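Students often ask what a holo structure prediction actually looks like on paper. The answer is less mysterious than it sounds. You provide the chain, you provide the ligand, and the output is a string of discrete structure tokens encoding the 3D arrangement of the protein together with flavin-adenine dinucleotide.
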Amino acid sequence: MERSARGGVLVLGGGFAGGYVAKLLGRHGATVVSPESFMLYTPLLPEAASGTLEPRHVVVPLRVMCRHAEVVLGRAAAHDVEGRRVEIHAGEDVHWLAYEHLVVALGAVVRTLPIPGLARYGLGFKSLSDAIHLRNHVLRRLEAAAAAADEARRRRELTFVFVGAGYAGVEALAELSDLVRDALRYYPTLRHERQHWVLVDAAPKILSEIPARLGEYAAAQLARRGVDIRVATTLEEVGEQAVRLSDGDVLPTSTLVWTAGVRPSPLLAELGLPVDERGLVPVDETLRVDGLERVWALGDCARVPNRATPEHPDPPTCQHALRQARRLAKNIRGEARPYRYRMLGQVATLGRHRGIADVLGLRVRGFPGWFVTRSYHLYQLPLLSRKLRVVADWTVALFFKRDIVELGSLGERRPLGDG
Ligand SMILES: Cc1cc2nc3c(=O)[nH]c(=O)nc-3n(C[C@H](O)[C@H](O)[C@H](O)COP(=O)(O)OP(=O)(O)OC[C@H]3O[C@@H](n4cnc5c(N)ncnc54)[C@H](O)[C@@H]3O)c2cc1C
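The corresponding structure tokens follow.
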């Protein structure tokens, strides 16, 4: 079966880049193909993992966000470049969608390394289900520690190792250590047990993408609360009950979280798109894919030149994906103009009302940094209803103790008649 994309525009991927292109095309219309029905606001994922925010509040339903677009829940599987159509797998259905303009916004996948045991035992932190899984996993460790008969087992369950000290790793560790600290109040037998949080990175410092002084502040904050920071160190091996690091240490643990970077979707080459040595789709400054007319790419899957920073292409961030989407929506509707965007700044939270922000040259840290970070995310989050829900969650968190319920088994189907 074959049909045409709405308005002639087919958008592959409903993440930051694809979701915003479809939204900004407005009444022009588009068909968005996405395996999920929502756009995930990734900067708030650590707070969803720690339970400060309700997980549903950090996602935006695509059908609400992109009112005039058709949303197809499925995956792009093949591309007929000559025939200008893409094969879509949607549940049991397989069909072709013809396009006049194709927007490739397939994002990135977790970048793993051939480290023994990593694929089997490592936990990812990229999707909403990763965040929910990690929260449940961490809370289960507390139950296991409380039930443990010996000290060594308790210590193992209360050791949490994060590999990758970029934004995702630092924020996830900070938020989850807050969750554990709060939850331990309800475990009288564990109250005096030492938690061991370890942050490992191959680089010589953490958060190497932000100005040095803010990075040093973040490292000092984490160290002050007992986080064991191991820079210039790599993960060598992962087992069910321990990890081995390049500094020779073997750490007994049941938790290894891998946040050491992403790589462009491997599907790009399979779709017949050109890719560079890093797997990114090269585009010109109007975001048009090199050598393909009316095919565009943006976001984490593309190498996007930026007129404002001619010395390097855009980094993979939400704010760049959003600005690229704004330019691309205009380029599809009218005359194609070059993309140009100067970064406003960078922000990150460090848990416990602490954060760092470098916005428009203004560098703030501690409580003001945390406040600026939250305000920025609130401003960026699409839909008023989502903003209000997030504000409500934050307000509740100010006055009430954290919810430590673990609902890991509830999403699974129970056999009929099983109680
Ligand atoms: C934990 C975490 C925290 C982050 N924090 C920040 C932050 O604080 N600030 C910041 O600026 N950036 C942050 N980022 C980076 C930011 O999320 C990305 O740069 C941004 O999401 C890129 O948008 P994208 O649309 O290119 O990719 P994505 O948002 O990943 O979207 C890609 C989409 O393609 C879909 N897809 C995949 N395969 C198919 C297929 N076969 N067919 C159709 N669709 C498909 C995916 O389901 C997904 O919806 C963070 C990332 C992570 C993982």
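The radius of gyration is 22 Å.
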